[in-house]
Amino acid sequence: MIDSTAFLLYGHWIKKDEHQNQNRATLFQTEEKSDLVRHEQLLEQRRLDQEESKLLRLQRQNQIDEGLALHQQVNGN
Fold first, then answer.
1. Which residues span the domain enclosing 46?
2. CA angle 16, 18, 21 (to 5 degrees)
3. Closest CA to 26 of 43, 47, 3, 45
4. What tens digit of pLDDT does each residue of 19-38 get?
5. Taking a C-beta distance cutoff of 8 angstroms, is the pair 27, 10 a contact?
6. Which among 7, 30, 37, 62 has the fewest CB atoms less than 10 Å away?
7. Smallest Cα–Cα separation from 2: which of 35, 31, 27?
8. How many domains does the structure of the chain reveal?
9. pLDDT number for residue 73
């Protein structure tokens, strides 16, 4: 009942699609959905950045370890 009444009152604000149909769901959509998508994208980017940072630290550590091993070989230790 509330859905039908709201649609009757505010249906003229709803954009029509290419077939000139009105979508009832668009009446109740809010910006939170786009905010949620943006939040999920930011979380995913943060996770990727952390993985990249971890990979870079491991690469640096490997370079240090290789340098130490080479130094020990040169010095005969």
1. 2-75
2. 45
3. 3
4. 556 555 665 666 556 777 88
5. yes
6. 30
7. 27
8. 1
9. 85
Residue 24 near residue 3 (C-beta atoms within 8 A):
yes
DSSP codes, 14-50: SPB-TTS-B-HHHHH--HHHHHHHHHHHHHHHHHHHH
Rounded to two decimals, what is the model's pTM?
Answer: 0.46
CB 22 within 8 A of CB 14: yes
Could you give the CA distance from residue 3 to residue 35 in angstroms, rounded to a whole number? 24
Residue 16, CA distances (Å) to 21, 55, 61 in order: 5, 49, 58
Tokens of 48: 């990727």
CA–CA distances in Å: residue 13 to residues 2, 18, 39, 54, 60: 17, 16, 28, 49, 58
Residue 29 sits at φ, ψ, to 5 deg, of: -75, 145
